[in-house]
User: Fold these one by one.
Assistant:
Number 1:
Amino acid sequence: MSATPSSAGRNWVSLVPYGLNEQHPNNYKDIVDAMWENRDNLGYAWRILRDGCCDGCSLGTTGMHDWTMKGVHLCAVRLALLRFSTAPAMDWHLLEDVAPLKNKTEKQLRKLGRLAVPMIRRKGEKGFRKVTWDEALSTIATQIKSTDPQRIGWYLTSRGLTNEAYYAHQKVARFIGTNHVDTSARICHAPSTAGLSATVGCAATTCSYSDWIGADLIVFVGANPANNQPVTTKYLYYAKKAGTKVFIVNPYKEPGMQRYWVPSVTESALFGTKIADDNFQIHVGGDVAFFSGVIKHLIENNWIDREFIAARTVGWEETEAKIRSLSWEALERGSGQTKADMFRFAETFGKARHAIVVWSMGITQHRYGTDNVRTLVNLQLSKGNIGRPHTGLMPIRGHSGVQGGAEMGGMPGAYVMGFPVNEANAHKFAEPSMWGFTPPTWKGLSAAHMVLAAERGEIDVLWQSGGNFKQTLPEPDLVERALGRIKLRVHQDIVTNPTMLVDPGETVVLLPAKTRYEQRGGGTETSTERRIIYSPQIPGGPDIPEAMDEWEIPVMVAEKLDPARAKAAFPWKDTQDIRNEIDRVCPTYKGIAALKQKGDNFQYGGPRLLVDRCLTPDGKGHFSAVELPEEKVPAGHFMLATRRGKQFNSIINAEVDPITGARRDDVLMAREDVERLGLKDGDAITLRNELGEFRGRVKVDRVKPGSLQAHWPEINVLVPAGRLDPSGVPDYNATVEIVGASCLAVPESEAQTIGA
Ligand code: SF4
């Protein structure tokens, strides 16, 4: 039993030192493990930590510090990623026969070491053969030259790449004539971009992390930053000290958001820190209903800011009418929360002067993700919670490149930030002072749409800089089939992954790239809070003589295609030249050219956006009358949501999640469901739907009854492809049944209809 903390430690978890009686990460062991893993190049690993901008999530650092708090900023995610930068070259002969490699996991492939040389594999060959850079580039250029640009796709990962690399890649893609350009933002935060752009006119977080500390209330919706952005727990430690309340809206009571032991704060490391003040366990997909119910209470109790609404917004009347028309019965059924629960939230929220809403993929990865975001905007606009200190809208990004990748044009709908794809902007970019060539104006495809198009035989060339589609996208069999139909696949990367080993349609080319820390001239990234941070080149890395700079590789292909035009379009020697150009063509990034030293940074737009006006054409915040989404869960079935463990995207770092104690094949279930089905903790079960089966084990946990959670990407075998939000993000949820227990399953009377 936990001892009871004294009132001196009102946020303490218990008096048991280091939470020795609790399940939680051992961050000190993570440090020792990282030292052991990088022991062959420990000095270089240290210099990356000391001087580099973290290539993990999107909080952003310079070395091991940030701009939110004093003290050390370091976490296990960053330590686990270090090996990408310190590993020696792999024995490239291993790639001469891919059959043995196909049995290896992503982790085993990664552990082989860095891609060392350019290699090519043709259809029917058992593996890759080493080629010169010249042969690799000529092969790519020859295929591109004979391909309709509308059949060429370009995909850029969101981890590790710099703004300069995104800019160079997408500019080359447009030089070739395609708008099928995308980043992995398209499988996470595209609904945030779409929802925020349409309502407040900006696609970025409107406040700063430092606004958390001193806010009356922070609301986390569908987000688990304790796992995905671990240093946020330190920010929350300081916020709780300052009196900030934390509400969690999620179908699962994420243990890391209930309490955490922050390793670099003695008090928290010893006694833990309670984070959540209240939890609202909604249905999977119950967000619109829940927050519509909250707004209904705000209206009925006059807890809305009518002055702000009148002065700064449009569309309130329709939204108010819509919300008033929704019955409490529909809102309770849709949200999985009672009218009283929604009141409890509304009362604290309505009386708070300053509140911040933070969300992540629990909001976005639905086929109605953009509507979910619009609803959160409604909530904040109804209280005037934008533009003031300690208020704001924060789509927290999980990868270091998600923000900058899209802003640098790594998306189908914009050349760079502020210049959507259209005739007028194409004309502007054709001017010699801009790009000097006319980019295409047709509508490009998102990443998920590119793969669906490939399955239909409509894509002939796919360039992938990073990325591992075979594991990250729904329906791996469909993805493999689609990739196998593409004539030429180019994989520019640091290490080997399973997607590279998919058999060629005609040709697969592997191109070894340098890490961000090896690029000459360094590079920049943009954090969630819109801070553009310079990360210097760090000498002393592994010896990979044939690896090339990330930004330089596509430029070399452009030079093969059309030397004269390419010379004029890409006159860059290093990343400083690219920053100079970005500074010139992207007004929001004005100032990037001056970033030259470790720690140089600036926050575009200042600490807060939307201070006096929104960035919409009329300067107003736009309310949205959002329909309740409908999810039918047939009797005997469950709504399955996907979740992350100790991993970074599809990079699995451990078989057991130290925060939840869940193994990779565990299926998190509510105790009520487990008992009703006659199951018990640890039982083997099979989840099944029309796509396939997943064999796992029951883990009794605090999930919403009627729902299940299992680890992504393994569970992708049950997630249907093609169910996309209009912004292009796949819906990573599915209805499933538990085979063998269905005779005992949820009775007809308890079948759920979430929504209208
Ligand atoms: S919280 Fe994010 S930015 Fe900070 S060290 Fe960890 S991975 Fe890097």
Number 2:
Amino acid sequence: MSARAGSATRWDGRIARARELAAGDTPARETLSFYAQLADYQRSLFLAAADVPGAGDFLQAIDVDGAAATVPPFLVWLERTAPHSLALAATTMRDEEVDWRTLMRASLALDDAAVADTSRFAEAKAFVLNAVLQPFAEAAAIDRLDRSSSKPGMHSSRCPICSSLPCVGILREEGQGAKRLLVCARCLTEWEYLRVVCPSCGEEKFDALPVYTTDGFAHVRIEACDTCRHYLKTIDLTTNGLAVPIVDDIASVPLDLWAGEQGYRRLRSNLLRTADRQK
Ligand SMILES: [Zn+2]
Ligand SMILES: [Zn+2]
């Protein structure tokens, strides 16, 4: 089985987990139901992403033409499937002449200024950009990791493949303890990162790095930093092996609300920007 086909099961896992959590007693039911459908759509994009032959650089390896061509049918899909405000924004974006290809290239190059948008639909546009790029970036990242023999290093809080910030952390069992990994918001690559270091400012003092948990989400940790006031949400797979980090992140939005009330800012929002919307 190719690395790509094998990795499609990761999308199956995300979809199944979102459906399962949406069926339970959760304040995030609507968001999770929408995410389950979105992940199913993204899975098809992931499988359709073309290999870019001979691409040396990661940014070149992403099928940006394919991704940009995907946007018009994705907007139609959003009109039918998304929550009301996003569906309305999709209708408007269909009528606008947006140069998605250029926007995608700028976004991948982390050129925030070129992607910045002050229009009424800025948030919806960013969502479309990120939702479409995520599976294409993941496909390119997997093909790349598959060819590379070296493992990503553990001292950078930026993704070793695409240099984006992580959207969520993971604790995974290792020997007698647990190791921490970060999950890239853009390409979903996971890489190991030191456990007691703030991924935002590099603070290492234990006393400045409080960890908050709550009974309602026993496997979800708010790993905060009192120096820079950012936090990373980390999903503890050692206490819940069924959790799927990017889905359990969406399900535990009350913790983001709480962290915001304490004056902490999330390092990087998730695709659905549930944390931002609560503010
Ligand atoms: Zn990445
Ligand atoms: Zn910090």
